[in-house]
Design goal:
about 45% helix; alpha/beta
Length: about 140
């Protein structure tokens, strides 16, 4: 097995949550990370299901992003909500997923996730810049399935 009972150690969790906090200072977008051992079915469908279970579609600007990882099945998806999908090109997340996948192949899992978070923050600032009074609408904690 590649990972412990929990996907991340407590220090790795802190590193990822800090990356989310840092990225969300660049954008009004909301970023979440969800990890689970297995992905039943198509990864994008499962990511969309998790997105809705986490109620990420309830942001005011519909600008939530989910980084979904099924570690035992080695599946990864990055998806955005309706507001993002209406504003960005169809291949918007492809380069982010590619870079994350390359880091995962090198067994740099936390680096891969942090890269995805940092890239989401940088990319979203073009379409959903941070504004005064922006509030954190979704938890920055990592969810596990």
């Amino acid at each position: 097995m590649l990972f412990k009972k929990h996907f991340f150690s407590s220090s790795e969790r802190r590193q990822i949550v800090e990356a989310i906090t840092r990225a969300e200072k660049l954008t009004s977008g909301e970023i979440r990370v969800h990890v689970e051992p297995k992905c039943s079915g198509i990864v994008l469908d499962r990511a969309a299901d998790v997105f809705h279970k986490l109620e990420m579609q309830k942001t005011v600007l519909r600008n939530g992003v989910l980084i979904y990882v099924a570690w035992e099945d080695r599946k990864l998806a990055v998806i955005g909500d309706k507001g993002i999908n209406e504003a960005v090109p169809a291949d918007f997340w492809d380069s982010t997923v590619e870079k994350m996948t390359n880091l995962f192949r090198e067994q740099k899992y936390v680096d891969g996730i942090v890269h995805g978070i940092d890239e989401a923050g940088r990319q979203l600032t073009k379409y959903f810049p941070y504004y005064a009074g922006d509030k954190n609408e979704l938890s920055n904690d990592i969810s596990e399935g």
